[in-house]
Each structure stands twice: as C-alpha cells, then as structure tokens.
Amino acid sequence: MATLADVARRAGVSAATVSRIVNGSPKIVSDELRERVLRAVQELQYVPNAHAQLLARSHRTTVGVIVHDVSDPYFAEITRGLQRVASEQGRLVIICNSYRDPDRELEYVELLRAHQVEAIILAGSGYHDPAFTKSLNAKLAAYMATGGRVSVVGRHKLAGDAVMPANEEGGYLIGSAVFSLGHRHVGVVAAPRQLTTTTDRLAGLRRAARDHRRSLPARRIAYAEFDRDGGAAATAALLDADPKLTAIVALNDSMAIGALSTLRDRGLSVPSDVSVVGFDDMPIARDVTPRLTTVRLPLVEIGARAITLALEAPQHSPRVEEAAAEVIHRESLAAPRAE
Amino acid sequence: MATLADVARRAGVSAATVSRIVNGSPKIVSDELRERVLRAVQELQYVPNAHAQLLARSHRTTVGVIVHDVSDPYFAEITRGLQRVASEQGRLVIICNSYRDPDRELEYVELLRAHQVEAIILAGSGYHDPAFTKSLNAKLAAYMATGGRVSVVGRHKLAGDAVMPANEEGGYLIGSAVFSLGHRHVGVVAAPRQLTTTTDRLAGLRRAARDHRRSLPARRIAYAEFDRDGGAAATAALLDADPKLTAIVALNDSMAIGALSTLRDRGLSVPSDVSVVGFDDMPIARDVTPRLTTVRLPLVEIGARAITLALEAPQHSPRVEEAAAEVIHRESLAAPRAE
DNA sequence: CAGGCGAAGGAAAGGGCTTTCCTTGTAGCC
DNA sequence: GGCTACAAGGAAAGCCCTTTCCTTCGCCTG
Fold first, then answer.
1. Could you give the C-alpha distances from A199 to A123, A126, A168, B143, in angstroms and in order?
2. Do B146 and A1 touch (CB under 8 A)?
3. What is the pLDDT of residue B226?
4. How far apart (Å, rounded) are the C-alpha atoms in residues B42 and B36?
C-alpha cells in the first residue's frame, strides 16, 4: 500500500507538500510541484489512510446511528432522513443494527465511541429495563462528558436531545377510529411489552377506549415478536380466545400483515368479518389487500430532526421535539357487521 | 477523552502493560497489576481509539460491502448472510449504499480502501457501461495489488471471485412456466437495460420464448426504474400499447407489486384477467393478493458465499460459484382465459 | 545597501496505540 | 556460590498522517 511518504519521495518533495495538495489546503503551492505530486499520486494509486487522517486531524466528521434493523422499513425511512442531512453536512454515517438486543446496543455505543464519532443517534425503541437503561446511560454520559453528542428517537429516559414520535397520540387516534365505528370486541396484536413503543401505543389505545366507554381487557392483548410472523401468531391466539372479535389493532404494519395472513387462512374476510389496522404506514401498506388503514409517522423527518439536533450546539437543557401522528384511512377498517 | 497513557499513569504502570491487559495478549501479567489497570479503565471510562489501533496493528479485520440499497429486501437478505459469516469470523462490516449510482460506487471503493478494509464485496448488479467498468476495474486492481480481496455478486467482468445468481436460468424457468400455460400475449416489466441483471433475466425469458415457439417483441418490453412505482408505470404503458396482454413478467417483486397495483386500478383481476409473476421471492411476495408466483434466489446463501470467497486465500484463477434459481408457485399465475 | 516582508517549501512534533526488544529480578541447578 | 533460565514489566520504535512553526529566498522600501 503506497503511503504519503512514498508519494513525497517519488515526486521529490516533502510529505507536508503532498498532504497540502492532496487535501486542498489553502496554502499556496506552485503549479509545478502540484503537477509532479498529482502525477505521483496517479502512478502509485495513492489513497490516504483514513485512520491515520482521523488520528492526525482533530475534528470528527462521522456520526453513528444505532437502529434495530435497517432492513425494517420503519428504520429504513428514519435512516434515509438522517443520511440526507448527514450528506448535506458532509458527514459520514455508520449504521449499526442491534436486532433489538440490548447487549448489542451497549457494545455498539462502545464501538462508536472507539471510532471517535462526533454524535450517536439512538433510533431504536426504549426498553422497560432499569438495569439496562442505567448502564446505557452511564456509557452515554461518559461519551457526552468528552464532547460527544447524543440524540435519541423515542422515549429513553436519557439526558440528551430527543425526537418523540407521537406513539401515544397515534394509538389514541387509531383507537378512536376503531371504537367510534362501534367495534366492541377489539383485539390488540402487540409487540414485546418491554419496548416503550409498545406501552406508549397501548396507552393511547386505552385512552381511546375510555373515551368511548369501552375497555381493553388483558385477554384481548396478545404480545409477540414485532414482525409479520409474530403478528400472525398473535392473531391466531386472539381468535382462538375470542372468535367474536370484530377488529384487530396491530401495533405496527408488519404485524398487521401477519394478521391479514392468519385471517385469510381462516377464511375470514377483511374488513367485512374483521377489521384490521396497523401502525407506521410502511410503503407496503397501500399494496396489500385490503389496503391497510394505519397511522402515519413522519419517519424521514424524524430521522432528519434527530441528526440535526445532534449536530447543533448543545443547549443547557435537553431539547425534546414532537413528531405528529396521523391516521391514513384506507380499506381495512369498516364498521362491524350488524349482529 | 481518556487515552491509554492516562490509564497507565493512573495505574502506575507502563503503556505496554495496559495495552496487553486491555487486548488480552498472551503475555503473562500479574494479577495485581491487572487488577489496578482494570480499575483505572473503569474509573476513566477508557475506550481504546479504534483508529490508533488500526494504524498500529498490521492485520485488518473489517470488510466492506457495496450494495444498491440495504433497505431493499433483495440486498437486505444478501447482507444478512454476509453479516452472519462476518460475525463468525470476527469481522466488522461496513455497508455502503450506492443507490445505483456508478460514480458513488467508485467513490465507495476508494473510501473502503482508505479505511484499510481486508476485503470489498460488490453486491450490486453490473452495468453495461465499458467506461465505468474500466475505471472500476482499475480501482479494484490497484486495491488487489496491495493485498486487498475482492468478490462480487453477479456479472461484472471483473477479475475476482464471484457468486453468480442464476438470473438467466431463473428467467428461463419463469418464462417456461408462463409460456407452457399457453400465454401468447406476454408483457415484460423490465428494469433499466444497462443493468446486467436486467439483460440476463431477459435473455432467459427469450430462451424460454424460443423453446415454446413464441417471441418477445421489443414493444412488449417496458423499461422503468427497478422499484414499485417503476413497475406500476411500465405496466400502464404495456397495457396501453396492447390491451390484450394475458400475462406480465416483472423482473423483480417490487415491480410486480407495482404491476398488481396498476391492474387493480384498471379493474383487471389477477390471475383471471392477467397473470403476474415476479422475481426474487421477497418476503412480501406471499402477503400480497394474489400471492405472487416468483423466482427464488438463495440470497442469504449468496451473501454468505460471497464473503467466504473473499475471506479465503486467493486462488490462482478467480473462482466462480453458481447459485441456483427455483420457481415458487403461488396464485398470481394461471392459464389464460379461453378466448 | 540594510532592513523588512511575503511567498513557498520543509522539518518535526504530535495523535494513540501495538509490539519487539531489553532490563531486571528471581528461582533452579550443579 | 556462580551460573543459566525464565518470568514480568518497561522503553521505544514504529504505523501514516496533519499542522505548526521555521527556513530560505527574492523583492521592495527608505
């Protein structure tokens, strides 16, 4: 691998000159030397060692983002918004998938610190796990103490800037849509209960139930993995427990799609037999049959705002921004059949 | 930010000792010193600077992968297989999204080289673009000349190990399935023609047509972006040009879903009016209505094999491995209605 | 013509870590 | 007791760059 010194030797100049030319420093260099150096760079196919540069330079230009899984559309959207701002600001972003494993999340914070990132953005849901939250906080505090910037998406009980998706509000809106149509037997297909996203959305649902003089008994809430197969399994369990269900609220679109699949397998049609609603408005929501009624969160914007907060100068007190939720009405929700 | 030297000072030992303990070197260190050092590490929240480590160490442990877009399920699957092997082998992987921009692809090769990666895996489709291929080859050659390893997924005319998805074969299989049912008016929803993936799949389709004494005239092939909306637009164009179409072959599942959407908008039902088939067997293929008949490629395995090739010692001549395609029969393909 | 100034390039000091090679001290052996 | 041998820790030489001074030189000014 050719080094700066090799180039300098070949061009017959000092390392300083090569560095200045390669990096386009404002210092004036004669055209002749520039020419020679550039030729040497070409001939040797020289590429600067990024690690040496990072070590020698003082300022950082990389930010890290920890998500559950970028291939999940929810995080893909957030990441897209984030990347856009990052590019605009000349920052590189390192993406880390925690796959919802708290330990891995901890490791990644360490890794990003090791890589000297300028900011860490935590985009995954928070966990109801005091021990974990405490150690995560400790790690982040150590990072922030040395000038690192942190921002989070969602509820984390972390001292840092945050963008809050309106999960509770979204739950309330979609719940109201369902209850106001007259549904009385409503099942909820929920994600693991240790995720704050789950409890927040559920809380909104409960508030909507109360407002409509309905209740959401525990037996009508099935917890499962936060994906299509989890949704399918939870729906099956709900249906077995109460065949009279007229509506199913899934806590995200993937689970709603799983619900659709189970319903189809059982010969129940949507929405005439059972209504189904989702959450997140993933792109695929408009392409399933029936098209999914769901809650839209401005995910791209959430990502963009999270990184913007992280890149701006820190304030005295942590800033918290809300991102509004909105119900997208499609075909999968209808009034229950008259009994 | 605490450094190794800070830890050494605090523990009252040399930097060498700290390094040995932190990295678990085989050299024996007394329990007492180990104890003191570990305590200092804790107290200072020390995390080694990854760049300094990479600079000081000789061996590389990171690999880079360039894909079109990880949030595309096709690449998400490949990446998953790749990540699995990487973790098993103790390697970190850097993911780069080229968004199908050749220039960005070039830049990323440079960036990965700068980051001293051990191997580069090119997972995107090749391009029919001699100028680009040439400069990419030059960059990769320079990288390989200094000990870098390269492997590619798909056809790239690159001197390196390769895993070849059976695109031609897959095209042939799905084409045969369509033609053997008696379809005579078959439209193709194709991706941009400069992608080798497109031409390979098309070639298979043409071979199937010949075998069944049919043809695939140019007017029945519509090229568009390789995504859902591209598929929807191309389908509309095809239908406008020839309303008698009885089958549509989309070159990937996203485009097939777009086709389904256009068909639905026009009140045509699938498969009774028009059959639709896709390619890639993305997870969502079984969840749309009707369930999509498509071609499965062992994507996770392709990713795993690509990185395995890259990590193994290079052979004299580049190795090329084939990955078989298989038709997955679901509901979106049926015989054409008798006229 | 001395003195000063600005332009152009180089020397060298880091930046934080790994690792080889040394030094020191102790145990073991005849 | 004198010697070897080995265990345990440290000194210091890199790894490859950036950047801050310095030096040199030609030119202008008074």
1. 17, 10, 8, 50
2. yes
3. 93
4. 10
CA distances from A46 to A4, A49, B52, B66, B241 (A): 8, 9, 20, 21, 53
Nucleotide nearest to A15 (CA to C1'): C10
Q: Quickly list DSSP for B107-176.
A: HHHHHHHHTT-SEEEE-SPPBS-HHHHHHHHHHHHHHHHTT-EEEEES----SSEEEEE-HHHHHHHHHH
Burial bucket for residue B84 (CB in 10 Å: 0-12, 13-18, 19+) = middle
In sequence order, the 6+-apart residues with CB closer than 8 A to the CB of A176 are A208, A211, A212
pLDDT in tens, B58-102: 888 999 999 999 888 899 999 999 999 999 998 999 999 998 899
Name residue B294's beta-bridge partners.
B328
Among A163, A120, A161, smallest CA distance to A139 is for A120
CA distance A210 to A244: 21
pLDDT band for position A339 (50/70/90)? low
Contact A52 B55 (CB under 8 A): yes
What per-residue confidence (pLDDT) applies to B48?
96
**Choice between B130 and B339, residue whose per-residue pLDDT is larger:** B130
Nearest CA to B123 out of B87, B81, B151 is that of B151
Give the pLDDT of residue B66: 96
Beta carbons of B295 and B326 less than 8 angstroms apart: yes
Average pLDDT over residues B207-233: 96
Q: Which secondary-structure segment (H or E) carries A169?
A: helix A167-180
Q: Which helix (H) or strand (E) holds A16?
A: helix A15-22
- The confidence band for B339, taking pLDDT boundaries of 50, 70 and 90, is low
A-B Cβ pairs (cutoff 8 Å, strict): 97
Question: Which residues of chain A are within 8 Å of residue B55 when distances are taken between CB atoms?
Answer: 49, 51-52, 55
CB-nearest partner of A116 from B51, B83, B115: B51
Mind telling me how many Å the CA of A210 is from chain B's nearest CA?
Answer: 34
The answer to whether the Cβ–Cβ distance between A110 and B289 falls below 8 Å is: no
